[in-house]
Amino acid sequence: MKTTIFCFSGTGNSFYAANTIAQLLGDCTVRMIPSLFDGEDIEMTERVGFLFPTYKGFPPNQVKDFIQDIFSKQDLSPIKYLFMVNTRYKFQAYSMVAMEVLLREAGCIYSYANHIIMPDGYVPLLPVPTEEKENTLYAQADERIRLIAEDIQSETIKLVGKRPFSRLALNYLMGYIHSTSKLFARKFVVSDACTSCGICYRMCPSGNITMVEGKPVFGDNCEGCLGCYHRCPTDAIELTTKAHEGRYRNKRSHYTVEYRH
């Protein structure tokens, strides 16, 4: 059965999981969500999945926008099995509940949900994992991914439980979280270490970075993924607020996706 995975990834965790699952399934295409905002029609396959990280307890803003503005307007009738897989470290919170509601409102009922624990790069709250810790988490994630791929291949039914205050969280908290995340880039500054390589400009999934006189300038449409912060080769992008030291390069994921040229 042909499968399509819609994936959003900031630092590469979800990208790695999506592509590994695709290899295990076979006949599977991974499509990165930011690249699908050009209004094109998207041919749906019999099996469709969403793979995404948890940001502050919810799915990323662009995942929500993709489902509401693009996915919901496609012909969804070919879909026979819909799955969603979340990458996270500590907290899943309302991410799966929110996805269930978003997909239901788009006209789809999911059949399977699961999560994969992976290293976290949100340095305002958590330290960057050591190489040993990262390797341990990736080894555990690989086994989890293998089991998830087997579940998907056999079209296992696995639903998530309800969480208390879900409706209040989705109606009020998610919108607030997404709106404040858009302003996250105000916490970035660029040091003299910047070499004007433009990697941050090209890889930003929300197109929030422009290059002015060879230096990145940040707007107010940030996703808060910290991809630019971690992928800057000279560590020139810094945070003005308190944060843990270190950068999560995530070399295991081979995440070099760029959305602009």
Describe the 3D structure:
The chain has 261 residues and is of the alpha/beta class. The protein folds into two domains: 3-169, 3-Layer(aba) Sandwich (Rossmann fold), CATH 3.40.50; 184-253, Alpha-Beta Plaits, CATH 3.30.70.20. The chain has helices at 13-25, 61-69, 95-106, 131-153, 166-181, 199-203, 227-231; strands spanning 3-7, 28-32, 47-53, 81-88, 112-117, 188-190, 209-212, 215-218, 237-239. The strands form three sheets. A five-stranded parallel β-sheet has the order 2-1-3-4-5, sandwiched between helices. It has a two-stranded antiparallel ribbon with strand order 6-9. Helix 1 (13-25) runs parallel beside helix 4 (131-153). The mean pLDDT is 94.
